[in-house]
Amino acid sequence: MNKVSIEIDGRMLSVPADYTVLRAAGSAGIGIPTLCYLKDINEIGACRMCIVEVEGVRGFQTACVYPVSANMVVHTDTVAVRNARKNVLQLIMSTHKIDCLTCEKAGNCKLQDYCYEYEVDTVVYSGKNIEYAIDSSNPFYFRDNNKCILCQRCVAVCSSLQCSNAIGLVNRGFDTFVGADNDKNIEQSTCVSCGNCVSNCPVGALSPKKKTKFREWEVKSTRTICPYCGVGCELYLRVKGNTVVDVVPANGPANNGMLCVKGKFGYEFINHPDRLTQPLIRKNGVLEESSWEEALELVVKKIRSIKQANGADACAGLSSARVTNEENYLFQKLFRAVIGTNNVDHCARLCHASTVAGLATTLGSGAMTNSIEEVTGADVIFVCGSNTTETHPVIGAKIKQAKKRGAKLIVAEPRKIELAENADVFLQIRPGTNVALFNGLMNIIIAENLHNRQFIAERTENFSELEAIVKNYPPELVAEICGIDEAKLREAAIMYATANNAAIYYAMGITQHSTGTQGVMSTSNLALLCGQIGKEYSGVNPLRGQNNVQGSCDMGALPGDFPGYQKVANPEVLAKFAQAWSVNLSGVPGLTLTEMLTAAVQGEIKLLYIMGENPMVSDPDTNHVAKALGALELLVVQDIFLTETAKLADVVLPAAVWAEKDGTFTNTERRVQKIRPAVLPPGTAKTDYRILIELMNALGYPTEYADASEIMDEIAALTPIYGGINYHRLEQKGLQWPCPDKQHKGTKVLHVGSFSRGKGVFVPAEYVPSKELPDAEYPLLLTTGRNLYHYHTRSMTGRVAGLNELSPASYIEINPATAGKMGLIDGELVRVLSRRGQIETTVRVTDIIEQDIVFMPFHFAQGSANVLTNSTIDPIAKIPEYKVCAVRIEKIQS
Amino acid sequence: MSTEYSLFMNDPDSVCEKQGEQMKTQQQLETIRRETLAVIGLRRAQAIIDGTTGTIAANGLSHIMVCAGTGCASSNSAAIIDEFNQQIVKHGLADRIAIVKCGCLGLCAQGPVVIIYPENCLYKMVQVADVAEIVEKHLLNGQPVQRIFGGHLDETEHPTEITKFFSNQMRVALKNCGLINPENIDEYIAFDGYKALAKALFAMTPAAVIEEISASGLRGRGGGGFPTGRKWQFAANSSASEKFVLCNADEGDPGAFMDRSVLEGDPHALIEAMILAGYAIGAHQGYVYVRIEYPIALERLSLAILQAKNYGLLGDNIMGSGFAFNLGIRLGAGAFVCGEETALIASIEGQRGTPRPRPPFPAIKGLWQKPTLINNVETYANIASIILRGSQWYSAFGTETSKGTKVFAVGGKINNTGLVEIPMGTTLREIIFDIGGGIPNGKQFKAAQTGGPSGGCIPAALLDTPMDYDSLIAIGSMMGSGGLIVMDEDTCMVDIAKFFLEFTVEESCGKCPPCRIGIKRMLEILERITNGEGKAGDIESLQELAEVIKSTSLCGLGQTAPNPVLSTLRFFRDEYEQHINDRKCVAKVCKQLINYRIIAETCKKCGLCAKFCPVGAISGDRERGYLIDTHKCVKCGVCIGKCPPKAIEIN
Asked: Which of residues 118-147 of A touch B (CB under 8 A)?
C-alpha cells in the first residue's frame, strides 16, 4: 500500500493511503475519543465523538471514516473540536439514565470517562425521555435501554460478527431503540446468548447478570484460553479475591474478540461448591475423605502389586483432552516410563481417532490443514458432519461471516442445522452414508472433467484406484443411498470443483462411524481430486472437539505414539525416548480406550487410571462401561468433580481446573497457546501435573519441574513439531505446529508445496452401511450429537445455572410425521430402547430431522443417549459408531 | 388514422400489444416522431416551452387534454375523461376529437384542469356535469363555457390571473407535463424525445456529454445545488468496471411535488436522461428510487420503462449503438431521510435507510460499494434539453451562478397554489404576485418559506430577493428542492418553526445524537414557548442548540434542521419575545395564548355559538346573552364560524 504524508496536531506522519484519520492518529499514539467505533465492524460515524477539523474542509469531519489523503492537515484537539464533543456528550447525557453510583459499568464506562474528560457535570439540555422496561429475559444479561446511547455496536456485533441478527434498531428519530427481532424480548429472539454484544457495549446498557457483585477497580484480569471447545478462544478471566466473576473476550488469533455462550458465561463451575477439595478413598464401599499421602500411597501400592502379579500391561491410563499439553505429556510419561506400559489413550479415540488415522495415511498429518482466520476468506465452504454453530460456535459464526461476504456454502448433514439455512446447497443425507456421498461427488467431478489433472499428476498417487471405485457411484445411485436430490448433489460437486478455493470442514458426523476412517479419507480424496488443498483458504479441516484434544494427541496420549506422532514401534524413536527418560521402554503399542474396557471385562486390565474423563456418560454402551469399571481391581479417577465415573472409583484425586493452572492448550488449528492461573484451587486440590509429579516420585522415578514451562522445554526437545516452542515465545501469541525450531514462525497452512508424507495418496473406499440399521424390532435410526449450551458430559456446564435454564434436560428429536404415526406429542416423556439398554427422555417434535430418524444430545447423564449407542468400532481407528444405531420408542403409560 | 390513434391513446392495454417490438434505429424513431407529430402537433408545444409559436397544421382535429396528475385525479378527473369519451361518441365526434390524459400543468388550485387544442384554451375546476356543456357549446358551437373558462393561454393582450400564471413561467423540466400523454412513448418522441440520446450516442463522446452538462451550469435540483457536470465527472473518473446511475425520486419535502409531476407527466424525460448519464459515466444499470406513496408516478414510470425496452431504448444495444443500459425501480417507504444520497443507497441495498458520513462520496463508493451517480428527478429532467439544444441555450437563463430554470411548489396562503417553473433569479415577489396571483382574501403577505424543513423564512422586506441558490443562502434560507410556502398575517412564526421541527423530529433517522436528541430538545422548547411557558434564556438555548446540531450532525437533515428556527429568530425575533415575555401570539394561533370573547354589543343572542360549542364552554340565554368559559374553551373556532354577526373575537 502506498503511503501518504499527513500532519496531525502538528506532527508529520507517513501512513498507508487506505488509512482513516482515526487509524492514522492511533498509529502515532494520538487518541481520538470514540463511542460507536469498532474496527471493521461498526465504522458508521454515528456517535460524533471522533470529529476533527481537516484544513480546507468545511465543518467537522468524522475521523473514524474519513480517509487520509496526501498533505492533509488535521487538528484533533482544538477548542472548537473539544466544545463540539462536549456538546454531543451533553446531548447524550440528556437522555441517559444517570445512576453512575450504582451502575455496574461504573469505572469501565466510556461515556463516564469522556464526561470526566470533557467536564460534563450537569444535565444541560434536559427534556422528556422515554422510559424503557429493562429486558431481563436472557439468563445471562440485562438490556437497559435507558442507558443505551444507540452506538449500534451491539447491533453490528450481532449482525456482522455473530451473524445472529437477533437485535436491530426499532423506530426512528428520538424514539429509536435497540430491540429484539420479534418485537418482544431477547429470550424469544434468535439470540444465542453469545454475549458478544455485552462485551462490546461501551456503557451500562448491556450488563451481565452478576453472581458476585464487584466494582471495576476490585478485579484483576488474567489472559488465558477458553476451556471448552477446540477453537481456542483467548479471553480474560476477571477475578475478585479468589473468585472468577466475569469473562471478557481477548482479541486472540482464533476468536478475534468473539466468544460463545459457554466461553462468555459458563465460568460459574470454577468455584462451585461441588468441587472436589480432598482426596477420597473407598472404604467399606463408601468414598471417604483422606489425606493426599494416604491416597497416593494406596495408588502406588496397587500399581506395584498389580505390576508384580499381572505385569505392567495390566495397568492402563486414560489421559484427558481437557488438561494441558504438559499434563498429557507427564501422564503418558508416567505410564510409559514409570509404570512401563503403552496402555495409554484418551477420548480422542471417541471423536477423531479416525481423523488421526485417516489423514495421517493420506496426507501425513491428522490435523486441520488451514487456520481459523482463513475461514472467512474461502470462496466455497463445504461443511459435512459438523453442526458448527453449536459445536464450534465461533468458527460457525465465521462461516456465516464468510457467507455474508459472498462465499458459497455447501452443507451435508442429517439434520437441518442452522448452517443449512445459510447454505447454497443443503444435502440432508442419511446418517452413515458419507462415503457414498463423497464417492458420488467425485464421480460427478470426474465425469464433468472438473478434476485438477495437473495437481493429481504432480502431487498425488493412486488416482487410478480412486477412478475405478468412484465409477461405481453414479449420481442416481448416490442420491438413492443418501436420500438426497440428484440435482443438488451435482450442484454441490460443481460448486466445490470449480471454486477458486474451497475448504472442507468436518467433525464427528464423519468420524464416528464403523467406517469413520474411510469417511475421513474420502474428504481428503475429494480435496486432492480438485487440488483444493495445500494453499490458503483451501483444505481439509477436522474440527477438534475439546479445548486440548489436539494437544493430547500431539503429546502422545495414544497407545502407539510418543509425543509428536513418533511411533512406539519405531526402534529409533524408542531408543531416543528411552535415553531421554533413562528407562527401558516397551516397543509394543498399547490398548486403545475401547479395547481397554473390553480387556477390563475380560480381566486383563486390573487397574485403570482416569484423568479428567467421564466414560460413564461419554462412552458408548454405558452398561458395558459400568461392567468394565466394576471388574477392575483399582479405579483411580482424577477430576474436578465427583463425576458419574468418579462415583465408581476406589480413589478419587481432586484436581485444579484450567483457571487455576499454567500450561498450554493446542487448539484445532494446531495453535499452541498459553493458559495462566487466575485463582487458587479449592481445598487441597492440586494441578494435574503436580499430582502426576508426586506420583512419579512416589513410584520411585525422581521427577522435578519448577513449573509447567520446564515441562514444555522437555517436550520441545523430544518432539520435532513442537521443537521451536517455549513459554517465552508463547507469551504474546500462540504458535502453530509444525514449529521445528526457535526461529520458525509456525505453520499457518499445511502441505504447501508437498504433503507431510511427500505425495498425497488417494485411498478410496466402497460404501459400507452402518453396522446396526433399523429393523422391525428397532425401527428408528438414532444419531447423536451436541448442543450449544452444554459441553461433553455436563460436569462443567451442568453447574452453570443459566446454561441449564437454556437446556435443562435430555430430549429426543423426532420428525412430526414419525411422531404423528406413533401418537407422540411434543414434551411427552417416552422410553427409548436399543439392544443395549433403555432410558427415559422427552420428545421434541421438529422438522429439522427427517422421518424415522431420531436425534439425541449425548450430554445428559439422566436419559443418557450413550446407554443406547453401539460400541461397535471402526477396525482401523477403533472409534465407536456413535452416529448410527437402531432404537425404538415406547410410550410410558401413566 | 386519427380514430385508430385516439383509441390507442386512451387504451393503455393497447400499449401492451406493442410489446416485443424490435429495437428501433435512429431512423425508425425519426419516422415515429414525424408521424406522431403530424397528429399531435396541433398542441403547438413550442408555445408553452419558450414563447415561439408552432405552425404545424391542425388538420381540423381537436385534442382535449385532461389532467391526470395526482391532484386532478383526486378531484375525479378520471370520471371527466370517461364522460368526455361518452359525449364525443354520442355526438359522433370520435373520429376527430381525441381525449388525452396528460400530466400536471401546475395550476393545481384550479383543478381539474382541461385544455382544448388547437385553441389552447383552459377550463378550470371542471366537473363531470360540465363536460356535456363543453362539448356542445365549445366543440360544436365554438362558444366558451364562461363559468369555467380560464382563458386562451396564448392570448397575451388581456391576461387573466390564469394566463399570467402560465405566461410568466418558462418550462424546461416540465416542458411536456400537460402537453403529452405520459403513457405513450410516441408522443414523447414526437416532441423531440430520445433525440438527445441519439445525438449523444452517435455524435458525442461521453466526455463531450459531461462537458456539455458542465458548461450548462446546471446544479443539483434536489437541494444541494452541487454542479451536476462535476458530479458526473467524478463518477466518470473512476475506472471501476461496474457503476450505477441512480435517480432520487424520494421527494420528501412537505409540499414539494415537482418530481412526482415529472414522473407522472413526462416519465421518458427521466429515462432518457438516465441513459445519457449512464453513457457519460460508463454505467449500464440504473435504478429509480421512488417512494411508494406515489402510485400514479410508479405506474407511469413502470409503463414508460416497459415501452422504452420494447423500443430498444433500454437494453443491450440501444438504437443499435452498442451501448447497453438497463433501468429498474426500487421502492422507498417514504422516509424523508432516504432523500439523503447515502441513506437512499443503503435503502436500495436493503439496509435501514440511514446516512453515513462522506467521504467516501457515492461517486467513489456508492451502491454495493461501486461508483455511483445520483441525481434527483428534476435535475435529470433538464438533461435532454441541454444536450439537444446546447449548454449555451440553457445557460442563457438564470443568474451568474444559478443557471436555467427552477420548479417551485407554491403552497400556503396564495391564490394559484401549484407548480411553477421560472428562470433562476426571478424574484420572490414575481412568483407570488405575478404568477401566484397574490394572497387570498386581501390579507397581508408576511413571509415565504423556501427549502422545506431545511430552509428558512423570508420576510416581506426581502420580497425582491432573486430566487437562486446563493441569494437564498445569503438570507439564511435555501433553495432546497423548491418548496415555497407563502404565509400571511395570520401565521405565527414561532408556530411555523415548531411545525418544521415537528417534521424533522419525526423524520430524523436517529443515528447521530445531535439530530436525534438535539432537535427534540429544540422542539420541546418551542412547545413550551407556544404553550405560554416560555422563559428567559429560551431563545439563547435555541440558538446554542441550533449551532451544536448544525455543526455536529452527520448528514444534511440534522445540519439544516435548525434553519427554520434560526431564520424566524433572525427576522421575527420580536414574535418569540412576545410569546415569552408578554404571553402573546399576535397571529392569534397559539391556543394557550389566546382567549375567545363574545362582543356583547354585536351579539344578536341567537344562541348558535352555545348550540354548536363541542365542549359546552358557552352558556347563557336569549335574555341575558352568552359568555364563554375560557377555562373550558378549547379554541376550536366552531363558534366563530357559526356566529352570524361575527360577534366573537380572539384576544
From this structure: 125, 127-128
Give start and end residues of each alpha helix (H) in A277-345: 292-310, 325-333
Give the C-alpha separation, B282 to B210, whole Å: 11
B373, B271 in Cβ contact below 8 A? Answer: no
Torsion sign (Cα): A248, A251, A255, A258: positive
The residue-averaged pLDDT of A787-812 equals 94
The rounded average pLDDT for each run of 10 residues, N- to C-terminus, in chain B (651 residues) is: 35 45 84 88 56 42 90 92 93 88 92 89 93 90 89 78 87 93 94 95 97 97 92 94 96 90 96 98 97 94 96 94 96 91 95 92 94 97 96 95 95 94 96 94 94 92 95 91 94 96 95 97 97 95 95 94 95 96 92 90 91 92 90 90 90 82
Could you tell me whether strands A853-857 and A811-814 are parallel, antiparallel, or unpaired per DSSP bridges? antiparallel
Distance CA(A629)–CA(A600), nearest Å, equals 7
Residue B513 at interface with chain A, using a CB cutoff of 8 Å: yes
Model pLDDT, residue B559:
95
pLDDT in the model for residue A440: 97
pLDDT bin (cut points 50, 70, 90) of residue A894 is low
C-alpha cell at B50: 419558450
Q: What is the mean pLDDT of residues A290-301?
A: 96
Q: Please, what is the Cα angle at B448 between B445 and B452, to 5 degrees?
A: 155
* A653-692 pLDDT, tens digit each: 999 999 999 999 999 999 999 999 999 999 999 999 999 9
Asked if A67 lies within 8 A of B553 by C-beta distance, the reply is: no
Gap from A194 CA to chain B (nearest CA, Å): 24
| Number of CB pairs, chain A paired with chain B, less than 8 A apart | 97
Q: How many residues does chain A have?
A: 894
Helix, coil or strand: residue B398? strand
- Residue B163 has a pLDDT of 85
Tell me the pLDDT of chain A averaged across its residues: 95
C-alpha cell at B260: 412526482
Beta strands in B323-371 (DSSP E): 326-332
Q: Do B511 and A44 touch (CB under 8 A)?
A: yes
Q: Is A309 exposed, middle or buried (0-12, 13-18, 19+ CB in 10 A)?
A: exposed
Mutate to test the interface with B, among A72, A88, A175 (most CBs of B within 10 A): A88
Say yes or no: A91 contacts chain B, CB-CB below 8 A. Answer: yes
Q: How far apart are CA B353 and CA B344, in angstroms?
A: 6
Report pTM.
0.91
The label of the residue with cell 438516465 reads B274
Q: How far apart are CA A728 and CA B411, in angstroms?
A: 77
Distance CA B328, CA B326 (A): 7
The B residues from 557 to 586 touching A (CB cutoff 8 Å) are: 559
Residues A770 and A884: beta-carbon distance below 8 Å: yes
Best mutation site among B226, B503, B504, B517 for testing chain A: the one with the most A CBs within 10 Å?
B517
- Can you tell me the ipTM of this complex? 0.89
Q: Does B528 touch chain A (CB under 8 A)?
A: no
Best of A87, A115, A405 to disrupt the B interface (most B CBs within 10 Å) is A87
Q: Is the CB of residue B553 less than 8 Å away from at least one CB of chain A?
A: yes
A 10 A CB-CB count for A47 gives 32
For B504, nearest residue in chain A (alpha carbons): A173
A contacts of B516 (beta carbons < 8 Å):
150, 173-174, 176
Check A44 against B508: CB less than 8 A apart. Answer: no
Question: Which is it for the CA torsion A533, A535, A538, A544, positive or negative?
Answer: positive
Chain A nearest CA to B561, separation (Å): 13
3-state secondary structure of A569: coil
Contact A48 B516 (CB under 8 A): no
